[in-house]
Amino acid sequence: MIMINITTMSGFLLMGFTDIRQLQILHAFLFLVMYVLTLTGNLIIIIITTLHQHLQSPMYYFLKHLSLLDLSFISVTVPQSIDNSLMNDGYISHGQCMLQVFFFTSLAWAEVAILTVMSYDRYAAICFPLHYEVIMDPTKCKRAVTAVWLSGGISGILYTTTTFSITFCRVKIIHQFFCDVPQLIKLSCSNDYLGVVGVDAFMAMMALTCFTSIVLSY
Protein backbone atom coordinates (compact mmCIF):
# COMPACT_ATOMS: atom_id res chain seq x y z
CA MET A 1 0.00 0.00 0.00
CA ILE A 2 2.85 2.38 0.89
CA MET A 3 4.64 1.45 -2.34
CA ILE A 4 1.51 2.24 -4.35
CA ASN A 5 1.11 5.62 -2.67
CA ILE A 6 4.75 6.52 -3.36
CA THR A 7 4.44 5.47 -6.99
CA THR A 8 1.28 7.45 -7.67
CA MET A 9 2.14 10.61 -5.72
CA SER A 10 3.00 13.71 -7.73
CA GLY A 11 6.10 14.60 -5.69
CA PHE A 12 9.15 12.72 -4.45
CA LEU A 13 10.32 11.11 -1.22
CA LEU A 14 13.70 12.27 0.10
CA MET A 15 15.31 9.50 2.15
CA GLY A 16 17.85 11.75 3.89
CA PHE A 17 20.55 10.15 6.05
CA THR A 18 18.66 7.90 8.45
CA ASP A 19 15.27 6.60 9.62
CA ILE A 20 16.26 6.65 13.31
CA ARG A 21 14.37 9.48 15.01
CA GLN A 22 17.16 10.50 17.42
CA LEU A 23 19.66 10.75 14.57
CA GLN A 24 17.17 12.80 12.53
CA ILE A 25 16.96 15.32 15.40
CA LEU A 26 20.76 15.39 15.65
CA HIS A 27 21.03 15.89 11.89
CA ALA A 28 18.54 18.79 12.01
CA PHE A 29 20.45 20.43 14.90
CA LEU A 30 23.87 20.11 13.20
CA PHE A 31 22.51 21.42 9.90
CA LEU A 32 20.82 24.32 11.71
CA VAL A 33 24.08 25.31 13.46
CA MET A 34 26.01 25.05 10.18
CA TYR A 35 23.35 27.07 8.36
CA VAL A 36 23.22 29.88 10.95
CA LEU A 37 27.04 30.16 11.06
CA THR A 38 27.30 30.25 7.26
CA LEU A 39 24.46 32.74 7.01
CA THR A 40 26.00 35.01 9.66
CA GLY A 41 29.52 34.90 8.19
CA ASN A 42 28.39 35.69 4.65
CA LEU A 43 26.00 38.42 5.76
CA ILE A 44 28.82 40.10 7.70
CA ILE A 45 31.04 40.03 4.59
CA ILE A 46 28.25 41.46 2.42
CA ILE A 47 27.46 44.27 4.89
CA ILE A 48 31.11 45.22 5.47
CA THR A 49 32.06 45.23 1.76
CA THR A 50 28.95 47.29 0.98
CA LEU A 51 29.28 49.94 3.70
CA HIS A 52 33.05 50.27 4.22
CA GLN A 53 34.45 53.04 1.99
CA HIS A 54 37.92 51.46 1.76
CA LEU A 55 36.54 48.12 0.52
CA GLN A 56 35.11 49.28 -2.80
CA SER A 57 37.80 47.77 -5.04
CA PRO A 58 36.92 45.07 -7.64
CA MET A 59 38.32 42.32 -5.38
CA TYR A 60 35.85 43.11 -2.59
CA TYR A 61 33.03 43.68 -5.09
CA PHE A 62 33.51 40.14 -6.39
CA LEU A 63 33.94 38.82 -2.85
CA LYS A 64 30.56 40.32 -1.92
CA HIS A 65 28.89 38.48 -4.78
CA LEU A 66 30.70 35.25 -3.89
CA SER A 67 29.31 35.56 -0.34
CA LEU A 68 25.84 36.21 -1.75
CA LEU A 69 26.17 33.08 -3.88
CA ASP A 70 27.35 31.00 -0.90
CA LEU A 71 24.46 32.29 1.20
CA SER A 72 21.93 31.51 -1.53
CA PHE A 73 23.47 28.13 -2.39
CA ILE A 74 23.18 26.74 1.13
CA SER A 75 19.65 28.14 1.47
CA VAL A 76 18.43 26.02 -1.46
CA THR A 77 18.79 22.64 0.27
CA VAL A 78 19.57 22.95 3.99
CA PRO A 79 16.33 24.56 5.33
CA GLN A 80 14.23 21.95 3.48
CA SER A 81 16.39 19.17 4.91
CA ILE A 82 16.07 20.56 8.45
CA ASP A 83 12.27 20.77 8.09
CA ASN A 84 12.06 17.21 6.73
CA SER A 85 14.14 15.86 9.61
CA LEU A 86 12.13 17.69 12.30
CA MET A 87 8.77 16.73 10.77
CA ASN A 88 9.95 13.17 10.04
CA ASP A 89 8.51 13.64 6.56
CA GLY A 90 10.72 13.42 3.47
CA TYR A 91 8.01 14.39 0.98
CA ILE A 92 8.83 17.18 -1.48
CA SER A 93 6.39 18.34 -4.15
CA HIS A 94 7.20 18.23 -7.87
CA GLY A 95 7.31 22.04 -8.02
CA GLN A 96 9.64 22.32 -5.01
CA CYS A 97 11.93 19.70 -6.52
CA MET A 98 12.07 21.62 -9.81
CA LEU A 99 12.96 24.83 -7.96
CA GLN A 100 15.68 23.03 -6.00
CA VAL A 101 17.24 21.65 -9.19
CA PHE A 102 17.06 25.06 -10.89
CA PHE A 103 18.60 27.09 -8.06
CA PHE A 104 21.11 24.40 -7.05
CA THR A 105 22.55 24.02 -10.57
CA SER A 106 22.32 27.78 -11.28
CA LEU A 107 24.20 28.77 -8.14
CA ALA A 108 26.73 25.93 -8.46
CA TRP A 109 27.75 27.14 -11.93
CA ALA A 110 27.66 30.81 -10.87
CA GLU A 111 30.17 30.00 -8.10
CA VAL A 112 32.55 28.45 -10.63
CA ALA A 113 32.13 31.49 -12.88
CA ILE A 114 32.71 34.07 -10.11
CA LEU A 115 35.87 32.23 -8.97
CA THR A 116 37.14 32.41 -12.56
CA VAL A 117 36.43 36.15 -12.70
CA MET A 118 38.18 36.67 -9.34
CA SER A 119 41.25 34.80 -10.55
CA TYR A 120 41.42 37.06 -13.63
CA ASP A 121 41.06 40.11 -11.37
CA ARG A 122 44.06 39.00 -9.28
CA TYR A 123 46.04 38.21 -12.44
CA ALA A 124 45.38 41.70 -13.82
CA ALA A 125 46.26 43.34 -10.48
CA ILE A 126 49.61 41.53 -10.19
CA CYS A 127 50.74 41.39 -13.83
CA PHE A 128 49.39 44.74 -15.06
CA PRO A 129 49.37 47.03 -12.01
CA LEU A 130 49.70 50.24 -14.04
CA HIS A 131 46.75 49.36 -16.28
CA TYR A 132 44.66 47.64 -13.58
CA GLU A 133 42.17 50.47 -13.10
CA VAL A 134 41.52 50.57 -16.83
CA ILE A 135 41.25 46.78 -17.20
CA MET A 136 38.94 46.35 -14.18
CA ASP A 137 36.93 49.57 -14.20
CA PRO A 138 33.52 49.55 -12.40
CA THR A 139 31.53 49.13 -15.63
CA LYS A 140 33.49 46.02 -16.64
CA CYS A 141 33.14 44.60 -13.12
CA LYS A 142 29.36 45.01 -13.24
CA ARG A 143 29.22 43.40 -16.68
CA ALA A 144 31.33 40.47 -15.43
CA VAL A 145 29.03 39.92 -12.45
CA THR A 146 25.95 40.20 -14.68
CA ALA A 147 27.48 37.55 -16.98
CA VAL A 148 28.11 35.32 -13.95
CA TRP A 149 24.47 35.47 -12.80
CA LEU A 150 23.11 35.09 -16.35
CA SER A 151 25.31 32.08 -17.08
CA GLY A 152 24.12 30.54 -13.82
CA GLY A 153 20.51 31.08 -14.84
CA ILE A 154 21.12 29.49 -18.26
CA SER A 155 22.76 26.48 -16.59
CA GLY A 156 19.78 26.10 -14.25
CA ILE A 157 17.28 26.30 -17.14
CA LEU A 158 19.19 23.67 -19.13
CA TYR A 159 19.35 21.24 -16.20
CA THR A 160 15.75 21.81 -15.12
CA THR A 161 14.18 21.44 -18.57
CA THR A 162 16.17 18.31 -19.47
CA THR A 163 15.78 16.68 -16.04
CA PHE A 164 12.02 17.18 -15.81
CA SER A 165 11.40 16.12 -19.40
CA ILE A 166 12.28 12.63 -18.14
CA THR A 167 9.44 10.15 -17.67
CA PHE A 168 9.66 8.99 -14.06
CA CYS A 169 8.33 5.45 -14.06
CA ARG A 170 10.15 3.99 -11.06
CA VAL A 171 9.25 4.49 -7.40
CA LYS A 172 9.85 8.19 -6.68
CA ILE A 173 12.36 7.70 -3.87
CA ILE A 174 15.48 9.91 -3.88
CA HIS A 175 18.36 8.60 -1.76
CA GLN A 176 19.57 12.08 -0.87
CA PHE A 177 18.50 14.96 1.38
CA PHE A 178 17.67 17.15 -1.63
CA CYS A 179 16.56 16.75 -5.28
CA ASP A 180 19.85 15.57 -6.75
CA VAL A 181 19.98 15.36 -10.57
CA PRO A 182 21.88 11.99 -10.72
CA GLN A 183 19.32 10.50 -8.31
CA LEU A 184 16.44 11.79 -10.44
CA ILE A 185 18.01 10.24 -13.57
CA LYS A 186 17.91 6.85 -11.83
CA LEU A 187 14.11 7.08 -11.72
CA SER A 188 13.94 7.03 -15.52
CA CYS A 189 13.18 3.76 -17.32
CA SER A 190 14.01 4.87 -20.87
CA ASN A 191 16.70 6.78 -22.77
CA ASP A 192 15.04 10.18 -22.27
CA TYR A 193 17.73 11.05 -19.71
CA LEU A 194 20.32 11.45 -22.51
CA GLY A 195 19.51 15.18 -22.68
CA VAL A 196 20.74 15.53 -19.09
CA VAL A 197 23.92 13.62 -19.97
CA GLY A 198 24.49 16.04 -22.85
CA VAL A 199 24.07 19.05 -20.54
CA ASP A 200 26.41 17.37 -18.03
CA ALA A 201 29.08 16.88 -20.71
CA PHE A 202 28.76 20.49 -21.90
CA MET A 203 28.92 21.94 -18.36
CA ALA A 204 31.85 19.66 -17.47
CA MET A 205 33.75 21.04 -20.50
CA MET A 206 32.97 24.61 -19.44
CA ALA A 207 33.99 23.85 -15.83
CA LEU A 208 37.28 22.36 -17.06
CA THR A 209 37.89 25.53 -19.10
CA CYS A 210 37.26 27.69 -16.03
CA PHE A 211 39.47 25.47 -13.86
CA THR A 212 42.28 25.67 -16.43
CA SER A 213 41.92 29.48 -16.54
CA ILE A 214 42.11 29.68 -12.73
CA VAL A 215 45.23 27.46 -12.59
CA LEU A 216 46.96 29.41 -15.38
CA SER A 217 46.13 32.75 -13.77
CA TYR A 218 47.87 31.70 -10.57
From TrEMBL:
Under the heading InterPro entries, the entry gives:
GPCR_Rhodpsn (IPR000276), GPCR_Rhodpsn_7TM (IPR017452), Olfact_rcpt (IPR000725), Olfactory_GPCR (IPR050516)
Which keywords accompany this UniProt record? Cell membrane, G-protein coupled receptor, Membrane, Olfaction, Receptor, Sensory transduction, Transducer, Transmembrane, Transmembrane helix
**Its topology with respect to the membrane?**
Multi-pass membrane protein
Q: What are the protein's GO molecular function terms?
A: G protein-coupled receptor activity; olfactory receptor activity
Chain ranges passing through the membrane: 25-48, 98-120, 193-216
Which compartments does it reside in? Cell membrane
Q: Which GO terms describe its cellular component?
A: plasma membrane
Start and end of every G-protein coupled receptors family 1 profile domain?
Answer: 41-218
Would I find Transmembrane among this entry's keywords?
yes
Family, similarity comment? Belongs to the G-protein coupled receptor 1 family.
What this protein is called in its record is Olfactory receptor
- What organism, scientifically named, is this protein from? Orycteropus afer afer
Highest classification ranks of the organism: Eukaryota, Metazoa, Chordata, Craniata, Vertebrata
Question: What is the primary gene name for this protein?
Answer: LOC103211171
